[in-house]
Design a protein that fits this description.
The complex is a heterotrimer of chains A (about 425), B (about 280) and C (about 290). Chain A is about 45% helix and about 15% strand. Chain A is of the alpha/beta class and about 425 residues long. In chain A, strands 1, 2, 3, 4, 5, 8, 9 and 10 form an eight-stranded mixed beta sheet that branches. Chain A has a two-stranded antiparallel ribbon with strand order 6-7. In chain A, helix 17 (about 385-400) runs antiparallel to helix 18. The longest helix of chain A is centred in the N-terminal third of the chain and has 23 residues, at about 1-25. The termini of chain A are far apart. Chain B folds into two domains: about 1-45; about 60-270, Orthogonal Bundle (MetI-like fold). Chain B contains 14 helices and no strands. Chain B starts with a helix and ends in a 7-residue tail after the last helix. Mean pLDDT of chain B is about 85; it is low at about 275-279. By secondary structure, chain C is mostly helical. Chain C folds into two domains: about 1-40, no CATH class; about 65-290, MetI-like (MetI-like fold, Orthogonal Bundle). Chain C is built from twelve helices and two strands. In chain C, strands 1-2 form a two-stranded antiparallel sheet. In chain C, helix 1 packs across helix 12 (about 260-290), helix 3 (about 65-95) crosses helix 7 and helix 4 crosses helix 7. The longest helix of chain C has about 35 residues, at about 1-40. The relative contact order of chain C is 0.13. The chains are: A alpha/beta (about 425), B mainly alpha (about 280), C mainly alpha (about 290). Chains in contact: A-B, A-C, B-C. At the B-C interface, helix 1, helix 4, helix 5, helix 6 and helix 7 of B face helix 1, helix 3, helix 4, helix 5 and helix 7 of C.
Chain lengths: ~425, ~280, ~290
């Protein structure tokens, strides 16, 4: 009897409250390659995003899973097959076409349509986030533009300006190089070719090479391409303009060389330059310029890549997942992330913030400017890695003298087609 | 007299060569140790400095004692503990059976188990990973414990069988006479005598798992599940190479194994050569 | 009484079979999996149709598989040429009573205790082209390369040296153990009869330790042939594929390119070659015994 009344008075209401609380507390799982933390600016930016989200959505709990960035795409494909997908994940732009084709992502049109028209127009448009019909599957939360970092002090000492053409680039690299300093730090190793291969791609497209035919088969064995490969080969033959061993390594070693102040030029993705500037202690001596094209004053198109937020098909809490996506890509959060970690915002309205006119935001301004003025028109294949890997191997053979540029390109075309784009 | 003289030269030559070999062994370790104490600007000093200009302890706090890295060490320790229990439990029973029992197909089955040692790890890591995904236990410490245990069992059976063979059967027979069952005899009479064998087994399990990269890499994905060697690898591939903290983490994580070896050499050698070397 | 006899009859199986089942599940099943996958096509995670030996032909003909095997063999031979003499030589030196023997033996066994990954990291840093002592030394003697690991000619030999560092202790320990089983009378007799140290080694010592040395040889051969981790961390197969060995190929196809059928095919080829080497060595061992 006493227990019965106790139950009625305390346990039942408590249970009701608990149940109500449970109903409200939603959990979403986020897959990311950088988690919230304090160790560096990227972790702090991430922590901010999640904390501000939690403050605005007290009923939603975000469970963060950190995995190596190279593994998110294959992990998502596997999870899709096993039916155990997260609610939100991020995919690097070269991986998007494969996922769209595999049908692992939820279309996002219904959510985007709920935005006011100004917000929709405000968001940067990246071709890899939509399918052939224009159906969106991802929303970028940051973007990066590849460009050429260079040692302004070395160029000034040699009386050179930032190169405006490929030929000028080669000549300048040779002029500033020495026994101790490599002209260009660009690495074609199949281990990590994305920077060098990305540069190769935009320069090819900029010189009018089609690269891939409409049926997806390789179509880059052209005189223009041969001219470019020959240019790289000639550089390596000139003692230190591009040392062969540097050209055979990957992007990380190239970056390390530049940080150690032993190189004059470093092609790299814009988001890395603040880190490089700080580590190398180069300060104002590190400047950025667009990838030059063959003709003076006409740079190669800007290679824009991004990490996009996606909601996998079969996510348990897509509504809550969308709230996170919406929050993360909103203008205030974008501005905050730019300030904390130098991320390039994905909304043009965000750039109106006065902070972007400060010297600190120079890289961001440069990136947006370059991407806006020289967009890249290229249909990325389902597997960009296969293309980059083939080119990397081609350069390996050409630069070690095993094949001529023409033979190399012919081999690369055959190899890419033999691989079936995998 | 002349004979003694040449003998002495021979001795000196032998010592010289042995010391040269020791230098060969210690140079990479010393260089790594030296780097682990160097400040960033000293790391890239040219010509190479063996003694750091300033001692930078920050490398250790950032590299070895970083929470992420400590987590990797913890994961390895957990897997060692789990695999120790599972693999030794299974192997010691199987070794006893092989040593004391006669049963059908014994020799053939034993051969089958031992032949798995011939299977190169690299050949099975991809299928193991696919199997783990299919079963749904991928990326858990559980599957890592099971996989390592299975890998270690054949060598442990060989090792422990050698030790059990040296225990005279009279002890068990007198226990039977006293009315003890086979199982009880095993636990009460035989097992306590196996301490040196179990020590060798423990050392083998510890070193194998602590040092292994391939299997741990194949079966884990998320940062929180990484074991030690995979964690070290991730330091290099994901954060760009910072040699100071990297060497701190590298040297620091190797010390337990080196210390264990120095203290337990005999068990070590027995463990790693499967009891073929006695003492 | 009868039930306990039944249990007693089961006892051996209860003691033994759990180990057998676990080992079979984790070692044999994956092997069959790889075998099966190697004769089917694949598209990322989807296994496709049966293709017979097409994958093998593809790998060996166009896929660079033969070149990978060639590099593996060169890597093994070069490593053995350094490892065996070093291991046996040090064992011979340690076989005599001397001061500090225990400490020397401990130090000389260290490289084996260190993990493959740590070995790779330590040596990569040692070989560094700009700040490493080795390239500094090479420059002093006039060899001007940017770094042993980034030079297409020096990369594989550099890996051989690293591999030797890691592998010789196994040979040393086995040889030492065998040497210490040689009875004192035999040693004494040899010292009186045989004359020079080399003749003593060739005619007395070597025949006695031969089978143990062969076992060490087999183990080192297989271990080197199957090495992935050190190559992965030191050169990743580069520069320009100079160090792309078959074992690394399996890893890359499986975990970087996600081409499961190629990985499985290469895995089966490695397994087959392992068996081939083992059989060849065992034949020599048997002939030796007879």
């Amino acid at each position: 009897m006493r227990f019965g009344s106790f139950a009625r008075r305390f346990i039942a209401p408590a249970a009701l409250l608990l149940a109500a609380g449970a109903a409200h507390a939603q959990k979403i799982e986020l897959w990311t390659f950088v988690g919230p933390g304090k160790e560096n600016v990227r972790e702090r930016a991430m922590a901010d995003v999640i904390e501000t989200f939690k403050a605005k959505n007290p009923g939603i709990e975000v469970n963060v899973t950190i995995m190596p960035w190279q593994q998110i795409s294959p992990a998502l494909l596997r999870a899709s097959k096993a039916g155990q997908v997260p609610d939100v994940a991020m995919l690097y732009s070269p991986s998007m076409p494969a996922h769209i084709a595999a049908g692992t992502l939820s279309p996002l049109r219904q959510y985007l349509d709920a935005w006011p028209a100004a917000d929709r127009a405000d968001l940067v448009k990246l071709p890899e986030t939509v399918d052939r019909k224009g159906e969106p599957f991802g929303v970028p939360w940051e973007l990066r533009v590849s460009g050429m970092g260079y040692r302004a002090d070395l160029l000034k000492a040699a009386g050179k300006r930032a190169p405006q053409s490929i030929k000028e680039w080669g000549d300048t690299a040779a002029a500033i190089s020495s026994n101790d300093i490599a002209g260009i730090a660009i690495g074609f190793s199949p281990e990590a070719p994305s920077v060098a291969a990305g540069w190769f791609l935009t320069t090819l497209v900029g010189s009018g090479v089609k690269v891939l035919a409409d049926d997806g088969k390789a179509a880059f064995n052209t005189p223009q391409a041969e001219k470019l490969v020959q240019w790289v080969l000639d550089l390596t033959r000139n003692k230190s303009a591009l040392p062969t061993n540097v050209a055979l390594q990957g992007l990380e070693q190239a970056q390390t060389l530049f940080i150690a102040q032993k190189a004059g030029f470093l092609p790299q993705s814009s988001q890395r330059f603040e880190f490089i500037r700080e580590r190398s202690k180069l300060g104002e001596n590190l400047k950025l310029v667009e990838y030059p094209g063959w003709d003076e004053g006409k740079p190669s198109p800007a290679l824009v890549q991004s990490w996009s937020l996606v909601i996998p098909k079969g996510a348990k809490n897509s509504a809550a997942a969308w709230k996170l996506v919406d929050h993360w890509t909103s203008a205030p959060v974008q501005v905050a992330s730019a300030k904390t970690a130098g991320y390039v915002p994905v909304r043009t309205s965000a750039l109106k913030d006065p902070w972007f006119s400060e010297p600190k935001a120079e890289t961001i301004r440069w990136a947006v400017d370059y991407a806006g003025k020289h967009p890249l028109k290229f249909d990325f294949p389902e597997n960009t890695e296969a293309l980059y890997d083939t080119w990397a191997k081609m350069f390996g053979s050409v630069l070690t003298g095993k094949m001529s540029p023409k033979e190399g390109l012919a081999w690369a075309e055959g190899e890419y087609n033999r691989r079936g784009g995998r | 007299m002349a004979r003694r003289g040449t003998a002495r030269i021979g001795d000196y030559a032998a010592y010289a060569f042995l010391l040269l070999a020791c230098a060969f062994v210690l140079v990479p370790l010393a260089w790594g140790l030296s780097t682990s104490f160097k400040a960033p600007q000293d790391v890239f000093a040219s010509p190479p400095q063996w003694i750091p200009a300033t001692i930078e302890l920050g490398n250790y706090s950032r590299g070895l004692f970083a929470p992420r890295f400590m987590r990797y060490i913890l994961n390895s320790a957990l897997v060692v503990a789990g695999a120790l229990v599972l693999s030794v439990a299974l192997a010691v029973h199987a070794a006893y059976a092989v040593s004391r029992f006669q049963f059908r197909f014994k020799e053939a089955l034993l051969f089958v188990i031992w032949s798995t040692v011939m299977i190169p790890g690299v050949s099975i890591i991809v299928p193991l990973y696919l199997m783990a995904v299919d079963i749904g236990i991928y990326d858990t410490l559980f599957v890592v414990i099971v996989a390592y245990s299975a890998w270690l069992v054949p060598t442990l059976i060989w090792l422990l069988r050698g030790f059990i063979d040296t225990i005279p059967t009279e002890l068990e027979e007198s226990a039977f006479v006293d009315g003890c069952g086979r199982l009880k005899t095993f636990y009460v009479v035989v097992l306590p005598l196996l301490r040196p064998g179990l020590a060798a087994a423990g050392v083998l399990v510890f070193v194998t798992i602590w040092n292994d990269f391939l299997l741990a890499f194949a079966l884990t994905l998320r940062d929180e599940n990484r074991l030690l060697q995979v964690g070290l690898y991730s330091f290099v591939t994901e954060l760009g190479i910072e040699w100071g903290p990297l060497m701190a983490a590298t040297i620091g994580s190797t010390i337990p194994v080196i210390v264990a070896f120095a203290l337990l050499q005999r068990s070590f050698i027995q463990g790693l050569t499967g009891g073929a070397v006695k003492g | 009484m009868s039930s306990s006899i039944g249990v007693r009859r089961l006892q051996p199986y209860l003691f033994f079979y759990p180990s057998l089942i676990l080992v079979a599940a984790v070692s044999f099943v994956p092997l069959f999996y790889a075998l099966r996958q190697s004769v089917h096509s694949a598209d990322y995670l989807q296994t496709g149709g049966f293709v017979g030996i097409a994958n093998y032909v593809e790998l060996l003909r166009h896929g660079g598989g033969l070149a990978d095997i060639g590099r593996s063999i060169v890597f093994v031979l070069g490593s053995l040429a350094l490892t065996m003499p070093l291991g046996i030589g040090l064992a011979l030196l340690l076989d005599r009573p001397m001061r500090f023997r225990a400490i020397l033996r401990t130090v000389l066994m260290l490289p084996w205790i260190v993990s493959q990954l740590v070995t790779g990291l330590l040596w990569t840093w040692l070989y560094d082209g700009r700040v490493g002592p080795i390239s500094h030394l090479l420059k002093q003697v006039g060899v001007n390369i940017a770094g042993p690991l980034t030079d297409t000619q020096w990369a594989l030999p550099s890996l051989m040296v690293t591999n030797t560092w890691h592998s010789y202790p196994l040979v040393m320990v086995f040889t030492l153990a065998a040497l210490q089983t040689i009875p004192a009378e035999v040693r004494e007799a040899a010292r009186i009869d045989a004359g020079s140290a080399w003749r003593r080694f060739r005619h007395v010592t070597l025949p006695l330790i031969r089978s143990t040395v062969l076992v060490a040889l087999v183990l080192t051969t297989l271990h080197t042939f199957n090495t992935v981790t050190t190559v992965l961390i030191m050169t990743g197969g580069g520069p320009a594929e100079a160090t792309q060995v078959l074992a690394l190929r399996v890893f890359k196809e499986g975990f970087q390119f996600y081409r499961q059928e190629v990985a499985a095919t290469a895995a089966v080829v490695i397994f087959g070659l392992n068996i081939l080497f083992s059989i060849a060595y065992i034949r020599v061992l048997r002939a030796d015994r007879g």
